[in-house]
Amino acid sequence: MALAGDVADPGQARQLVRDVVAAWERLDIVVNNAGIWEADEAGRGDLDVWDRTLAVNLRGAYLVTDAAIPHLAQTAGCIVFVSSTAGQRGEAGHSAYAASKGALISYTKSLAAELGPKGIRVNCVAPGWVETDMTSAAFEDPARRSEIEASIPLGRVAAPKDVAGAVLFLVSELARHLQGEVVNVNGGSVLVG
Hints:
By secondary structure, the protein is an alpha/beta fold. It has six helices and four strands, in the order αβαβααβααβ.
């Protein structure tokens, strides 16, 4: 089942959760993966990029999660936030993105402590470069792509399934005792955590 909506809009975020529960009669897993990545050069005062980025990347995750928590408490469900290595180390020219992703890491840890006693597991993945529509422009120039690949010890940009595998692990019984963790999926390019 595919549903469309603007996660940054409170009404639409709540409706997405209601529609899932109406269709499936329960909610077990929430993966907050909505995100945008726009350039914002320091000192230029591009408030529109800042507001738009935080609205989608952070506010959207908050709104969907907040609406889902009562349902997840009934099923001992799982929440996974998709952050980024930028949220751990910053990213020149993309400070709004890095700030939003860093905030998701803090939100993960706060919710892990608060929701753990209710049986809800909360964790996070922090991908590095991933081959997606969002990053495709960065890979258009073969020299830039080679530079990016050279910065990754595994020598390649991640495929979406590389990140999906980490998410699948976090929501599985194999990770039943992980709480508030940040799993880095970056091929070794940023050794943090």
